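In response to reviewer comment 3 from the previous cycle, which asked for concrete evidence that the modeling workflow produces usable outputs, we include below a single protein chain processed end to end. The sequence was submitted unchanged, and the resulting structure tokens are shown without manual editing.
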Amino acid sequence: MAIIRSLPALPSAPLDTPVPNAPRHHLRAVDRDEVIDVAEFLPPGATWLPAPPHTLPTLPGQPPMVGYLVLIPADSPHLTRTHPVTPLADEAEPLVRIDTVQRTAQLNGAELDLTYLEFELLAHLVAHPNRVHTRDQLVTTVWGYGHVGDGRTVDVHIARLRRKLGVEHRKAIQTVRRVGYKYTPPTAR
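The workflow returned the following structure tokens.
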């Protein structure tokens, strides 16, 4: 099992070239057969496990990436918490709010009248702001693996969502040409 750690970029250095005084927290590439004891890099009480393949990015023409999730106990002194996260004074409140328990979506305090799939699609986009989603990813995530259809189904639902968001906020769901869609949160002014 190969583990990836980072080091400063060394484009011409072979994999086994040591980097003097390299900090422990950087990544470096390792050979497939190289074994590294990961435990020495983890804080006490932490554990690690392989990341699910669908959560890792893929690069065309490159071998698949390997990633790991590091789990650190919440009471660990290695987690730096100086103060609770609060919005800055100049940050505006989000205009679109999703309540997945009551299955409601609100725009600027007014409830939107959405179908089941429109709600699921908007909730997914809002949960992952500024991330580009391909049509296939949206069909798989929102409609499920059993859905038979094409990306045009997504286009139709996006058009309906944009109409329901209204002229002022329809651009919150942006088209990324030849790729898919992304949600950019509108904020109160």
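The beta strands are 47-50, 68-71, 96-99, 104-107, 110-111, 133-134, 173-176, 180-183. We consider this sufficient to address the reviewer's concern, and the full set will be provided in the supplementary archive.
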